[in-house]
Amino acid sequence: MAGYFGPSYEEMLYPERVEPDLLARARQAAGVDELDPVNLFNITWKDPEGRVRATVLPPALTGVEANIIVLLGAGFPSGSHKVGPAYTTLMEGWLDGTIIPGRHTILGPSTGNFGIGVAYVCRLLGYRAIIIMPDGMSRERYQRIRAYGGELELTPGTESDVILTLERTQQLAKDPHNRTLAQFELFPNYRFHRYVTGRSAIEAAKGWGNGAIAGFAAAPGSAGTLAAGDEIKATFPGAKVAALEPYECPTLATGGRGHHRIEGIGDKMCTLIHNVLNTDFVILIHDDHAVKGLKVLRDGGGVLADWGVGEAEAAALRDSFGVSGVCNILGAIKLAKQLGLGPGENVVTVATDGFDRYPSVMEDLERRSPEITPSVLEGWARDVFRHAVPDHVYDCRGREAKARLFAQKEKDWLPFGYAREDLGAMQHPAFWEREYARVGEYDAKLLAKRRA
What we know:
Rossmann fold; 12% strand; seven-stranded mixed beta sheet; four-stranded parallel beta sheet; 11 strands
């Protein structure tokens, strides 16, 4: 394993290009021994048959004629696609010589899934990991991090207080033995999602409707997933990209602040790696709609059956999504309606994880809503899915809107030591293309290590 370290970007996109014996070992380890380091070669959107793990939601649920295609992140090692950027950030640091095995402790600022991914990758590769995150997240996140041997450094608050997490990380990073996998600001996150997620989304859409992608919707936490939209636009220039935010914390939309219940998104900032040049819309989603929508998918099988959703289809939906996944689905529905899409047209979104890290969120909902009868579920289903009208949609295509987003980025990142000139460079497409081109550079470095 030491000679391989892990997969290249190309091998994550095309796992069939991994050395056959190594790929066979990885597939055998999946689901049997998740702590075998060979599982790094299971970091891919593809299933063992080479198909992108994705589902097309029943129109009876979405209420739109366009196909809503959801890439499913729960099939990744550690249960979330966030393990991909956790791995690539560590991999690039190792290749650059800034992260040295046996010498450095890894810091992972996160609100959950990225931290789980960091703890997991560090466990496989033998690094000590400290995960810095708010103390108000779901208990399943903390349990999973500890199970992988990660140490927790908790800061006050919840999702919308991630700035405190970044400040604490900055303090810990002063120790020369610590190295930060900074998902909000380091470009391996951007590269993974543009190359691996973006091209996987394009492949997933080929089998549906006209085979093109008319829209891509994703909620930014780190904004890594939004980078897939850059690759989608490169292939389908007419595609529109929507960034989704909690209605309760509309930072990109209006500069607003607030607390919300959608874990993994809405972090009161415009992240450094967010290419706002390619953001066409910001769409706000009520946090309670995302939570109640998840409850409907979990326990509303009878309601869905009445709507015409088949029993097998409803069963497949029960474990496939978390709260942020439902948020993304609602954003995709709203985007389809905003664009007036019809039969044969496709909108793609992503489910970061599955239900396994949200039982405590459902318990909280049940405490707040003790009488969840079938009629209540039917009302929630109607309000959340069928009535997902394209309201609170902010058009970000104009010069004034772009200037506002860049100003937000400066406000957020100048205090962390970034120069105004460096932030200004991000206002030009050439900056993002240069960063993307480094995929080939790092793949070449990794292959050279293998041959050495």
